[in-house]
Specification:
The protein is α+β, with helices and mostly antiparallel strands and 76 residues long. Helix content is 18%, strand content 39%. The strands form two sheets. It has a four-stranded antiparallel β-sheet. Strands 1-2 form a two-stranded antiparallel sheet. It is globular and about 30 Å long.
Length: 76
């Protein structure tokens, strides 16, 4: 599945969210940093890619927004 974001591959910070994407429906915003998925801390972009390649139907992302951790449920 596609998340629908442009991501800085070094920092995992969202640069842009595509309209009508899984990410926009879930409320992700530019500037959010992806910290973890389903409770597993993200170390790098490849780890995120590998997770999405397993085609989950949904995922819970932990994000850092304005130095506050939040969880966001995304349905693909």
């Amino acid at each position: 599945p596609r998340l629908g974001v442009m991501l800085d591959k070094e920092t995992l910070i969202i640069q842009q969210v595509e309209a009508i994407s899984a990410a926009s429906v879930a409320g992700l915003q530019a500037g959010d940093r992806l910290v973890a998925v389903d409770g597993t801390q993200l170390q790098n972009y490849t780890q995120l890619q590998n997770y999405l390649n397993h085609r989950p139907s949904s995922a819970v992302f932990t994000i850092n927004r304005n130095n506050q951790l939040q969880t966001v449920q995304i349905n693909f």
